[in-house]
Amino acid sequence: MRNLVDESFNGVISIEEHGKWVFKQAYGEADLANQRLNRLETKFSMASASKIFIAVAILQLIEGKFIKFESTIGELLPMNWHHIDKSITIRQLLTHTSGIPDYFDESSDSDYAKLWENYPNYRMRTDEERLPLFLHKRMIFPKGQKFQYSQSGYVVLSLIIEAITQLPFERYLEKMIFVPCGMEDTGYYELDRLPLHCATGYCLDEESQTYYSNIYSLDVKGSGAGGAYTTAKDMERFWNSLIKNRLLSTSMINEMLSPQVKEGWYGYGVWLKSLDDHGYLPFVQGSNKGVSFISSYDREKSRSITIMSNFAQDVWTLHGNFYKALSQSF
């Protein structure tokens, strides 16, 4: 399996099956200026992959009967929604079928850093502060009409978590997900005050062919849309805890990890890859300036594969190559 990894790869690769390590390796540097190496315990930004934590939190509140799938944003967040349809439901937010205007549309522009040319990124420390980025926009399409990936939808979900629990959403996630799962190295950290063992994200300046930090390219703190930091071991702890019903009931987990959009590729906060021999492979993924992340869990084989990098790396092809190699070997 080491032969599958290009010598230029920078990050961590971790594969666990039935609770045992199959492959674990750290590559490259977490801090170029100080030549600090990446280690297995290095914390990496997840970008959009951390939407799965928001989804689990919402599903917990549904199972606790605090909200329903058909509860609307108008009911849960009584405020002036301007042109946004107040009858958008929790289910539609979870499945990216709400039509809510997005503060960053990945389908039309892949350069997230451009967002901060007009809005100082250092001010983005709460999801309430992100509302002006999309609140006055018009709906993209009528609610429920189709699937279109939405950052704003998950920002609204995090605000709903805060409204119901009276806690900052990251505090609720810590209390109800991270601590129960033993995820001691996972959290929503601020780029200008990162804790120990965090990897700095790096972007390539094409003109000078030098690398620079992503500190001015991302929200200074993660949101409901993404941006948590985690380690390979913590992702394994999360998947194992989820599948073993420590966070949700079996029926809710089965629903979460099953297709919830007609295209069949998305559940609740999780992407799905169709497998020829047994259903779907759930996975989460994130990509941004200085962030490349993918983590999957094969329920049939009790196998997690997590690949994360603090550079722009093709972790998706690498993940596919590892999955194929493992399928042929076992």
Care to describe what's here?
The chain contains 8 helices and 12 strands. Helices cover 25% and strands 18% of the residues. The protein has helices at residues 51-63, 73-76, 90-94, 151-165, 169-181, 232-243, 250-256, 315-329; strands spanning 11-17, 20-27, 29-31, 36-37, 44-45, 202-205, 210-213, 229-230, 271-274, 280-288, 291-298, 303-309. It is globular, with a radius of gyration of 19 Å. By secondary structure, the protein is an alpha+beta fold. It has one domain: DD-peptidase/beta-lactamase superfamily (Beta-lactamase).
Write the layout of secondary structure elements.
Layout: E1 11-17, E2 20-27, E3 29-31, E4 36-37, E5 44-45, H1 51-63, H2 73-76, H3 90-94, H4 151-165, H5 169-181, E6 202-205, E7 210-213, E8 229-230, H6 232-243, H7 250-256, E9 271-274, E10 280-288, E11 291-298, E12 303-309, H8 315-329
Antiparallel strand pairs: 1-2, 1-12, 3-4, 5-8, 6-7, 9-10, 10-11, 11-12
Helix pairs in contact: 1-4, 1-5, 5-6
Short description:
The chain is an alpha+beta fold. It has helices at residues 51-63, 73-76, 90-94, 151-165, 169-181, 232-243, 250-256, 315-329; strands spanning 11-17, 20-27, 29-31, 36-37, 44-45, 202-205, 210-213, 229-230, 271-274, 280-288, 291-298, 303-309.
